[in-house]
Amino acid sequence: MSMQFDKPISKQHQKFIKELFGDGLVVMDERKALLHSKTIDPHKMKMVANEVGQPVDVEINDLGEIKTLSDGSMYEVTSKGWEKIG
Fold it and tell me: Which one, out of 1, 47, 60, 70, has a CA that is 20 to 30 A from the CA of 39?
């Protein structure tokens, strides 16, 4: 699963998301968060949207999907979850 934000989120908001998802969070930057989950918890998503003050786009990602973070690092969904590639 991944979350995307229209506007960059602050380091404080990133910390909040890291604490909320704990080990379920693989990696994030100011616009994307990659999670080891295929289940959407509406309560947590509402908490994130309220905290960051903007809508959160949530995707359930399939095997083989690739996401690129702002630093250019790329992650692919594998049978083990998100794995860094390239």
Answer: 70
Beta bridge partners of 81: 78
Check: pTM over 0.85? Answer yes or no: yes
Cα separation, 4 vs 12, whole angstroms = 17
Q: How far apart are CA 25 and CA 18, in angstroms?
A: 6
Q: How far apart are CA 28 and CA 34, in angstroms?
A: 6
Could you state, in order of their start, the residue ranges of all structural domains in the chain? 2-85
> Would you say 3 and 33 are in contact if contact means Cβ atoms under 8 Å apart?
yes
Separation between Cα atoms, residue 33 and residue 26, nearest integer Å: 8
According to DSSP, residue 63 is labeled T
- Confidence label for 53 from pLDDT (cuts 50, 70 and 90): very high
Give the dihedral of Cα atoms 13, 4, 60, 45; nearest 10 deg: 40
